[in-house]
Amino acid sequence: MSLKNQLTFWSVGLLTLIALLAGSISYLLGQKGAGLFLDHQLRLVAGSVDEGSQLPAMQKKYLAEDQQKKEYGFVIQVGMANEPVRSSRPDFNLPLASASGYSEQFYHGEKWRAYTLVYPERTVQVSQSDAVRRDIASDAALFAALPIAGLLPLSWILVLIGVGRILKPLADVTMAVTLRDASSLAPIPGKNIPAEAAPLITEINSLLLRIQESIESRRNFVMDAAHELRTPLTALQLQIDNLAQSRSPEDMEVRIAELRFGMQRASHIVAQLLRMARYEASEHTSARARVDLGSVMKHCISSIIPVADKSGIDLGMVCDEEAEILANDDDLRILFGNLLDNAVRYTQSGGRIDVAIEVKGQMVSVSIVDNGPGIPEEMLPRVFDRFFRVQGHQVEGSGIGLALVQAIAKRESAELSLKNREDGRGLQATVTFKLFVNRDADGTQNDRVTKASF
Ligand SMILES: Nc1ncnc2c1ncn2[C@@H]1O[C@H](COP(=O)(O)OP(=O)(O)OP(=O)(O)O)[C@@H](O)[C@H]1O
Ligand SMILES: [Mg+2]
User: Fold this and answer.
1) Which atom of ligand 1 has the smallest separation from the CA of 404?
2) Which of 51, 191, 204, 400 could form a disulfide with 272 if both were Cys (CB 3.0 to 4.6 A apart)?
């Protein structure tokens, strides 16, 4: 059921109910008031009657009146001691009450209301047919209730107009959304929107903004990826051309080596792009579990150690405590894998890389320190941008690694810092996680300290 119909239904229903109640109360009060007024009239008339001098004239007048006036008029009776009771209406012999005041009596099967005044020498009684009194009271009551009944349809019309006006801004928004282009992500205009509906419009607009940002970021990613792949593919094309023109077996071997290197570079970029795409696709699905940082790091180091050995780099790890965190195992491997890969690739042969896992209170920090060239200070804030690479060194890369590292650290609520070593001889990457604290049923903290080195 629409809001408009509900509002109209309830407003019209309540107004009708109130009008019915008000009409009935007015009718009853009108009836009561008319009764009191008629009683008052009976008393006034009784008070104005003398020994009955006006009765003969009244009888004559009565006989000349039409039927309705005959029925509606008062009947005046005067009784004197030792005389028959005289009346303003011929043949009307309602017994006179013995005491002053109001009374109700039946006369010829009809109910009468009378007011009697008892004087020492005479009794005056003025009466009126109860049916006539009820007729008059009903008419008066009807007049009291009629305006309410008459105003009821007007109130319905006002409710319809009012509801229409209140809901107009919402109808305008609906129309604006219906008429808009299917691909439009522009904010919904929220002008004059009722306060109750405003948060909904704000939420929808912020959702539209997020969708727009997400579409834009995906579009940029695809464009950047295509751009990044173009360079190695052009290089591959050139290398193939060169290979075709090689003149001697030695020349051919050199060019094949170049081609192999170019292929490696292209497939590295594709692999990094795939990692990034997979990471983004799993944004809402990656499960978290208790992970031992030492074990994950050992696994990452064993994957990279052949490369480090080849370059004569001394890669070592110190893990002074067992450090468990709540995280996604695969994400952690990508994070540490990229940091280690950078350290190994950018450090010159014979260099040194130290990995340390340190628990400090409720936190655990993992640091990877190398003695490579470091990153120029002014470039440090930019190395987390996708496809950004520091120019001037021979090492090939796609510039995705640190962007991925930063995104994973954010998702895992870890703090990531990248800075040049204070002695100016290399780079220090530190990732700080919140430690997973295992509490026993009795609430005591279960800390087990082990020493391990790699
Ligand atoms: N340990 C490091 N020492 C010196 N420079 C580094 C180090 N780590 C990163 N950098 C610099 O930061 C840049 C960005 O690193 P990032 O890992 O994002 O990309 P990449 O290594 O070039 O490519 P990818 O990791 O995707 O293969 C690198 O090009 C490099 O110049
Ligand atoms: Mg890298």
Assistant:
1) 18
2) 400
Pairing state between β 75-80 and 324-327: unpaired
Q: What's the CATH fold of domain 289-453?
A: Heat Shock Protein 90 (3.30.565)
Residue list, ligand 1 pocket, CB within 6 Å: 268, 272, 338, 342-343, 346, 370, 372-375, 383, 389-390, 397-403, 427
Decide: 27 and 141 in contact? Cβ < 8 Å.
yes
Residue type, 400: I
What is the distance in A from the centroid of ligand 2 to the CA of 302? 18
Mean pLDDT of the chain: 89
| Architecture of the domain made up of 199-281 | Orthogonal Bundle (1.10)
Separation CA 451–CA 194 (nearest Å):
64
Domains 199-281 and 289-453 share a fold: no
Residue 36 in this model has a pLDDT that exceeds 70: yes
Quick one: tokens of 138?
Answer: 């009903």
Residues 6+ apart with CB under 8 A from 139: 34
With beta carbons less than 8 A apart as the criterion, state whether 347 and 309 touch: no
Distance of CA 25 to the CA centre of its chain: 44
Range among 162-166, 271-275, 340-344 with highest mean pLDDT value: 340-344
Residue located nearest, by CA, to atom 17 of ligand 1: 401
Residues 396 and 317: beta-carbon distance below 8 Å:
no
Q: Give distance in angstroms: CA of 169 to centre of ligand 2.
A: 53
Closest C-alpha residue for ligand 1 atom 29? 389
CA 238 to chain centre: 59
* Domain residue ranges in the chain: 3-149, 199-281, 289-453
pLDDT of residue 23: 93
Q: Going by CA atoms, what residue is nearest to atom 31 of ligand 1?
A: 390
CA nearest to 332, candidates 280, 295, 368, 361: 295
> What kind and span of H or E run contains 297?
helix 293-310
Residue with tokens 């209730």: 145
Please, which pLDDT band fits residue 269 given cuts at 50, 70 and 90?
confident
Atom of ligand 1 nearest to the CA of 389: 29
Q: 367 - beta bridge partners?
A: 356, 430
Atom of ligand 1 nearest to the CA of 426: 3
Centre of ligand 1 to C-alpha 213, Å, is 26
